[in-house]
Amino acid sequence: MTATLWHALVAPWEQGIDRRALLEVVLLGLTGGALGCWIIFYDLSYASESLAHALLPGLVLAALTGLPLILGGAAGLVVAALAIAAAARTPAIGRDTAVAVVVTALLGLGALLALSPASPAGLGELLFGDVLGVGDTDLALAAGLAVVVLAALWLLHGRLLLVGFDRLNAGALGVRAPVVDALLLLLVAGALLVAVQGMGNLLVIAVLVGPAACARALTHRMPSMMAVAAAIAILAGTGGLYLSYYARTAAGASIAGVIVAAYVAAVGAGAVRGRLGSSRAASA
């Protein structure tokens, strides 16, 4: 029985593509878990999802022309930013409405290009990802992203907390809130550019926001929240790959499904812990 269990644990990692996928989800888990906590703290979940969808047309055009996907995605972000800025200048259209209109249009355009019968086979993977198809270049980008994001969050930790808690008075202490906001959005954009190649345009936000949402239900201290979120992201990614291997399901969707299940469990655990705390306080 022990041998059977051991075989079940190691069988999914016998192939090189599976080991690369595991390393990819570990690296993305470290990045997404830590960065996602700040996304939630700054209430940037919608903005992050909008950025992810804005990438799609650029990714598709890059794939069609043979350019690196990261360049196409970056171009898509620039076009989206310019379009949103132009639409927001219209008095009758607010910024949130401009974001919704532009991002929906870009997502529809990207999906149309990716799923068109005239497009080469495989472009549909840009929507749902292909973490089992990552190569050495993708792993190098993910590793570089993890180093840059974690180092930046460590250096900016105090400023991020100050702006998040007291934006109005941050300037008096020498911290410019718009600069901190811009740096955080740059980190989010960089994470999306790298992670979207493995997780896909429609599922990448799950890696950034899902584990952090789980951690927030369990703890409210930022350092512990970041650590818990990273651990949940790595475990959910690994569990998703196991599910994909044994259930023969898509890897990206399996990972997203495990993250959702983890969130439900975390919310339930947080609610139970809160009730126990209330009961103890009442009995005392």
TrEMBL record:
Compartment list: Cell membrane; Membrane
> What is the membrane topology noted in the UniProt record heading this document?
Multi-pass membrane protein
Where do the TM regions start and end?
21-41, 61-86, 98-119, 139-156, 177-196, 226-245, 251-272
Q: Name one Pfam family in it.
A: ABC-3
SUPFAM superfamilies given in the database record: ABC transporter involved in vitamin B12 uptake, BtuC (SSF81345)
Q: Which GO terms describe its biological process?
A: response to zinc ion; transmembrane transport
Fetch the InterPro entries from UniProt: ABC_BtuC-like, ABC_TroCD
Recorded hits in Gene3D superfamilies, A to Z, give:
ABC transporter involved in vitamin B12 uptake, BtuC (1.10.3470.10)
Query: What's a GO cellular component annotated to this UniProt protein?
Result: ATP-binding cassette (ABC) transporter complex
Keywords carried by this UniProt record? Membrane, Transmembrane, Transmembrane helix, Transport
| Domain of life from the UniProt record | Bacteria
Family listed = Belongs to the ABC-3 integral membrane protein family.
The name this protein carries in UniProt is: Metal ABC transporter permease
Q: Which organism is it from?
A: Baekduia soli
